[in-house]
User: Fold these one by one.
Assistant:
Number 1:
Amino acid sequence: MKVNLAPIAIAALAACLLPSCETVDKDAPARAAMAAAIAAEPRGDFYIGRRMHKEDYKMWGWVREPGMPWKTARLVMMNEQKTLAPDRAGGKLGTDNNHEYRLRGRFSGDTVYEPASDRFYPEFILESYELLSANPPLIYTVKRQEDPKVRIIQPPPY
């Protein structure tokens, strides 16, 4: 029996010479650095918050426990009866979009209805805050989510 090896050789050569269909994740090093920084965060009686200002919505942003990845964060409604949120305290709503804070306070256990998104969000009672970064790394898969005019409210996947 005679086997024609030409088609096999051509296929092998093509596999070596043609570019791979696999995509290169250019953000992987930055995400790995962010994951390492989060893992090294000190633990304590506080939370980490990422402000997500949206012109059409009234939720405050994402809140997670220290040392936990952003994919565990909860999108919250901020109870400001004890302390005003940073942007409201400064008198300029939304000026701290995408800023990262150390938040002191607690989850009340209640949920608050936000009519524009037609959803319920956990209530976070803010007691104090400290700015950690005005330019933190991206936590979303779509950078446009940081834009206050864009109505994307997908949770951070990392």
Note: Helices lie at 6-17, 28-39, 86-89.
Number 2:
Amino acid sequence: MNTRREPRDPAAYRRERRQAVLRHHPDKGGDPDEMLRALDEIDRRHGVTGSAPGEQSVSAEQVAAVAVTTLAGVAAIGLSVAMSLLGRRR
């Protein structure tokens, strides 16, 4: 699991992140993967994030997959409950 800490120099941290976003943002013709790599490097350089040895970070795609699976499960349970309630009324 990643740990999040305050940057050693908050003003420099914000300035560097802003410059990276302006330089690499997809809306400005940049590459989103390069932007994420630049932001990760800035985070590491300023000591904001870090993983314990042997830990892997979680990608946005993994988080999205878990969220979609969870929502599908909730929808299925809701449908099952609704169908059982409707079936009892007969």
Note: The CA atoms of residues 3 and 49 lie 6 Å apart.
Number 3:
Amino acid sequence: MASANANAVWWKDGLNFSCTRCGACCGREPGTVRFTRLELSAMSRLLCVSEEKFKENYTWRKYGTLSLKERRNYDCVFLCIDDCGAKCDIYSERPRQCVSFPFWPEILENKDAWKRYSDSCPGMNAGKFFSYDEISVIVVEYIHDGISKFL
């Protein structure tokens, strides 16, 4: 079901993206990985630690919100790079922010923003096709389930 708003966005004809496991979205630059209370609970259970222990070991307060820690090189604390590429040690319970990349509002804002990110992400503009409607669902879920509920 196409939305009337589709004509208002530059990506109305859809976009391509498939993760190449390069790890660029998970590090190399400073950033934040925010998460909700439900995501905190899921990540803690996956690692078999209490939520308090998870927060103590794997998070810090950055820009007024809890974020997953970064290593000195800015990689996420859960990013593991081996001979096969990058992988996330909490992949099955990673935060929606991670799941929804690169379909974040700030990346979809305009073609220039998309281009800036795609310059460092070989998976953007390649691979699986996402329609306007599919992208819209991802964005709405990210905004609804995430931003308003971040810790």
Note: Residues 132-145 form the longest helix (14 residues).
